[in-house]
Write a structure and sequence with these properties.
The complex is a heterodimer of chains A (116) and B (110). Chain A is mainly β and 116 residues long. Helix content of chain A is 0%, strand content 49%. Chain A has strands at residues 4-7, 10-13, 19-25, 31-38, 42-49, 56-57, 65-67, 73-78, 87-94, 106-107, 111-115. Classes of the chains: A mainly beta (116), B mainly beta (110).
Chain lengths: 116, 110
């Protein structure tokens, strides 16, 4: 089925460790996004990309890096994990920013990350 | 800049009662508005969206929302809720990117 796939689904890290979350979409979407979800704070945009080779900061970019080397993949990196980065991470993609075309935004099923 | 405020963090309601989940937004550009639902331990599902035209938008599962430009609001309503509507609901606005509100937990009790 077409959609957005996130790997891994669960991960436990120790403080100071690094890791990369992978988001892959097979809908040829131009735009891709990384969000984090925390209780009482909704989903906050970390970084986003408006096309292959581009990235931009969202609302809460500190402590994260991203890369979009291929159109279908958007990687989120944590260089030195901190307990404050314990969260559920969602990736999304869309044809364009407004989300009007076709099915709008398509979300992955999430990655639950715990930093101890 | 765009922003979204959901005015209630939790809404408890009895089964078959009506419910309204409130959402206010601000934006310096034309906006498009969305409501998403997240059932426990699941991802996000689109309930409905406002693009243009009629200010009353109907979505899935019997939900509807009304866009009010003068009050910058996009409240979600359902005339009669069911236990299965228990979930978290997110209002979102898109212009240059999709920005979410803080979420409202709807708890439907028998």
């Amino acid at each position: 089925n077409a959609g957005v796939t996130q790997t891994p689904k669960f991960r436990v890290l120790k403080t100071g460790q690094s890791m990369t979350l992978l988001c892959a979409q097979d809908m040829n979407h131009e735009y891709m996004y990384w969000y984090r979800q925390d209780p009482g704070m909704g989903l906050r945009l970390i970084h986003y990309s408006v096309g292959e080779g581009t990235t931009a900061k969202g609302e809460v970019p500190d402590g994260y890096n991203v890369s979009r080397l291929k159109k279908q993949n958007f990687l989120l990196g944590l260089e030195s994990a901190a307990p404050s980065q314990t969260s559920v991470y969602f990736c999304a993609s869309s044809w364009e920013a407004t989300g009007l075309r076709n099915y709008g935004y398509t979300f992955g099923s999430g990655t639950r990350l715990t930093v101890v | 800049a765009q922003s979204v405020t959901q005015l209630d963090s939790q809404v408890p309601v009895f089964e078959e009662a009506p419910v309204e989940l409130r959402c206010n937004y601000s934006s310096s550009v034309s906006v498009y508005l969305f409501w998403y639902v997240q059932y426990p331990n699941q991802g996000l599902q689109l309930l409905l969206k406002y693009l243009s035209g009629s200010t009353l938008v109907k979505g899935i599962n019997g939900f509807e929302a009304e866009f009010n430009k003068s009050q910058t609001s996009f409240h979600l309503r359902k005339p009669s809720v069911h236990i299965s509507d228990t979930a978290e609901y997110f209002c979102a606005v898109s212009g240059r990117k999709l920005i979410f509100g803080q979420g409202t937990e709807l708890s439907v009790k028998p």
